[in-house]
Amino acid sequence: MAELENNQAALLAGCSWQQQKELAPQVLSLCQQGQTADAISKAVGLSPDAVEEIIEKASQKSRILFVFMDREIPATVIDVCGVTRKVKIVNLTDDLLSRAFGIRENPGWNDYEEFLESRCMPRTRYGIKDELRDLGLDCYDPFQIVEKTAGRVHGDGQWLRRMDREWIGQYDAILESSKSQEELRKKLLALLAMGQ
C-alpha cells in the first residue's frame, strides 16, 4: 500500500518512484550544499516538485527537537533539520545565561555544531579514547556524545532533553496556532509541564 502511494506521488511529481529513490542521495547532497530546488532540479533532471518532495520527506525523517534545560527549567527549544541544515529556536526564558545560544535569536548550522561540542567533554582531554569507548563510541562525534550523555557537562546543571515524534507533532500544532511569541512561549511551557 505504501509503495502504491509513493508511486502515485512520484507520478504526480513527474517521475517514477524508483527514479526518485535512486536520485535522492544526490538531491540531498546538493541541498546540504545550499543549492535551490530549481538548481537541483536542473542538475539531476527531476522536476522541482519531485526535488521538493524528496527534500521534504528526508527533512521530516532527519528532524530532531531538543529542549535545552537549565536544571529542571526549560530554556530553549532547538528544532534542527540535518538535511537542510536549518536550525530554529524558541527561547522560553529571558535569562540569557540559561539560553542555549545566549543573545543569538537565529543561530546557523555552525552555531549549532559549536553548541553541541560545548556540551561534550573536550576533544583534547587526556584519555578521551577511553571515555569514548566507555560510551560505546569509536570516534569523537558531538551529536553521538550528546545522545549518550544528554549534553550534561561537569560543573553546570544544563542538559538537553530529546523530544519524541509525538511531542514534535504537538509542537508543530502549537507553532501553527500561536499568534505571538509570548503565546508560543506560554503554550510550549504548558506542554513541557504536562510531560514532566
Task: Give a verbal description of the structure.
The protein is of the alpha+beta class. It has two domains: 60 residues; 132 residues, no CATH class. It has a four-stranded antiparallel beta sheet with strand order 3-2-1-4. Strand 1 and strand 2 form a beta hairpin. It is globular and about 55 Å long. 23% of the residues are buried.
Quickly list its features.
about 200 residues, four-stranded antiparallel sheet, about 55% helix, globular, disordered N terminus
Q: In order across it, which strands form the biggest sheet?
A: 3-2-1-4
Question: How many discrete domains?
Answer: 2
Uncertain spans? 1-13
Give the N-to-C terminal Cα separation. 38 Å
Determine the oligomeric state from the structure.
single chain
Specify the biggest β-sheet: 4 strands, antiparallel
Q: How big a fraction of the residues is strand?
A: 5-15%
Radius of gyration (CA) equals: 20 Å
The structural class is alpha+beta
Give the overall form: globular
SSE order, one letter for each helix or strand: HHHHEEEHHHEHH
Percent helix, as a range, is: 40-55%
The beta-strand count equals: 4
The mean pLDDT is: 87
Number of discrete helical segments:
9
